[in-house]
């Protein structure tokens, strides 16, 4: 998966997978897509990760369309299966909000739902085999493609900063400027309770302010970085598995590279994929019994990649199963913490 | 790992999605859910009421059936009573009719016997006279022997 400049080395492969498609103004080359990490870095702050934004927007729109469709068709009658699923998610979020957020707000529940579903969708991109979409993008001339928006720290921090902004707005709205300021300077050490003379108060207040600001700012940072870290690590493990088990190694893999040279042509992978899909399709349509299907799949996998490749598939599968839990859990944690933070912003304590 | 404007754009995207959800997704869905919950609650209450009504109706029906059964028993008893009454009456009637017929028959028999006796008695007198005249070869004057004849008749 390397571009012309990079050799197909392990570090090149990994690096290539970790570079976003960046659009911005390079000091020398002007506006355009960055070619490589250095160029992307040189573009400074005012550059955009086009792949992150594309997938984030696409998945957000999928969420909106999916739920809007149900919302428009919803009635108190007997729900369809899809409607029941959507309503189950909504009810789950609603319960979570009711458990943790005791104020009245029209914003918090929809906010939680959006965060949960959107984050889940973005995380879900991690389960698509790491090379598929980047390879497809390469085929149409896009050099870099990171398809999981939540492995981009910009996306997760963007979300957590939005949550942070809403927190501040809610704090100001529910406690007023004075109340919010008081919370910042009179906690955790209340100079009044300490019985200090008035001239010593500012000292304690400054101490309080430092402590409170640290805990306040830690909220969005930890919120964003937690999601980013988990997904980035998960993505990296997928990449490592792909690297270790599939990069031209294996019984038949090596045989294939001796026929095709270093680059196995795209049509080979397409034929292999079509064969696998056709087998599965025939099985689902009932034209192929289960035993025959398994033998055919095994033969196809052996033919395509050899035993080591099969090992890679199994590793991928194992990690993907484990990762399903992570992507749901992280989406849930992001949602829950958002609810808790919003609740803290509205309640006096 | 560059922090760049993606951060800002993603924040804006999120705000738009949240706004969309808040405006167009959450309220109708929650409304539908609440409505369905209410409907189900109503349905359950209605089913409870119906069950209660059914139970009441069952009790009522049981009562009606019992009353009807009692009534039927009463009617049957009455009918039986009437039946035996009629039977008794018929029997009485039959007995008295028989008695009447027997009496009538007896009376007729008695009359017949009486008549027979009378006619016999009459015949006996003339037979006796005839017999006597035959024996005596001579006419016996009925009038002169009246007394004797009457004595004879009385003896018959």
What does this protein look like?
The complex is a heterodimer of chains A (349) and B (156). Chain A is mainly alpha-helical and 349 residues long. In chain A, 72% of the residues lie in helices and 3% in strands. Chain A has twelve helices and three strands. Chain A has a three-stranded antiparallel sheet. In chain A, strand 1 and strand 2 form a beta hairpin. Chain A is globular and about 85 Å long. Residues 1-7 and 248-254 of chain A have low confidence and may be disordered. By secondary structure, chain B is mainly α. Chain B is built from two helices and no strands. The longest helix of chain B has 131 residues, at 6-136. The model of chain B has no long low-confidence stretch (mean pLDDT 88). The chains are: A mainly alpha (349), B mainly alpha (156). The interface between A and B is large, with 54 and 32 residues.
Summarize the structure.
The complex is a heterodimer of chains A (349) and B (156). Chain A contains 12 helices and 3 strands, in the order αββαβαααααααααα.
């Amino acid at each position: 998966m390397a571009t012309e400049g990079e050799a197909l080395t392990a570090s090149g492969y990994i690096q290539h997978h970790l570079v976003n498609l960046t659009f911005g103004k390079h000091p020398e080359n002007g506006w355009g897509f960055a070619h490589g990490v250095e160029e992307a870095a040189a573009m400074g702050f005012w550059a955009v990760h086009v792949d992150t934004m594309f997938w984030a927007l696409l998945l957000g729109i999928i969420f909106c369309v999916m739920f809007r469709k149900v919302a428009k068709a919803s009635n108190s009658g007997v729900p369809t299966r899809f409607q029941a699923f959507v309503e189950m998610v909504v009810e789950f979020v609603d319960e979570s909000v009711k458990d943790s957020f005791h104020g009245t707000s029209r914003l918090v529940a929809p906010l939680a739902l959006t965060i949960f579903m959107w984050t889940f969708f973005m995380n879900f991109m991690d389960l698509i085999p790491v090379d598929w979409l980047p390879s497809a993008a390469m085929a149409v001339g896009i050099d870099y493609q990171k398809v999981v928006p939540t492995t981009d720290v910009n996306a997760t921090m963007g979300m957590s900063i939005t949550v942070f902004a809403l927190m501040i707005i809610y704090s100001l709205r529910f406690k007023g400027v004075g109340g919010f300021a008081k919370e910042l300077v009179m906690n955790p050490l209340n100079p009044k309770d300490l019985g200090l003379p008035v001239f010593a108060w500012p000292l304690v207040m400054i101490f309080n302010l430092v402590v409170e600001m640290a805990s306040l700012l830690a909220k969005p940072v930890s919120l964003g970085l937690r999601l980013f870290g988990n997904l980035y690590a998960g993505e990296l493990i997928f990449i490592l598995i792909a690297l270790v088990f599939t990069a031209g190694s294996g019984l038949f893999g090596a045989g294939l590279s001796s026929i095709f040279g270093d680059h196995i042509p795209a049509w080979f992978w397409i034929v292999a994929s079509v064969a696998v899909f056709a087998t599965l399709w025939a099985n689902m349509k009932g034209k192929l019994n289960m035993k025959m299907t398994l033998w055919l799949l095994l033969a196809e996998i052996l033919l395509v990649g050899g035993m080591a490749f099969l090992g890679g598939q199994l590793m991928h599968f194992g990690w993907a199963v484990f990762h399903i839990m992570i992507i749901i859990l992280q989406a849930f944690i992001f949602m829950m913490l958002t609810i808790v933070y919003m609740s803290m912003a509205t309640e006096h304590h | 790992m560059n922090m760049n404007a993606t951060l800002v754009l993603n924040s804006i995207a999120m705000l738009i999605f949240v706004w969309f959800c808040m405006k167009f997704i959450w309220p109708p869905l929650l409304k539908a859910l609440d409505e369905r919950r209410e409907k189900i609650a109503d349905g359950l209450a209605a089913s409870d009421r119906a069950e209660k009504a059914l139970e009441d109706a069952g009790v009522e029906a049981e009562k009606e059936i019992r009353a009807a059964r009692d009534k039927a028993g009463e009617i049957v008893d009455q009918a039986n009573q009437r039946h035996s009454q009629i039977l008794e009456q018929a029997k009485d009637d039959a007995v008295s009719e028989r008695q009447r017929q027997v009496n009538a028959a007896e009376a007729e028999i008695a009359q017949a016997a009486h008549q027979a006796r009378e006619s016999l008695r009459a015949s006996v007198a003339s037979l006796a006279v005839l017999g006597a005249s035959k024996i005596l070869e001579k006419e016996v004057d009925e009038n002169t022997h009246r007394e004797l004849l009457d004595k004879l008749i009385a003896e018959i």
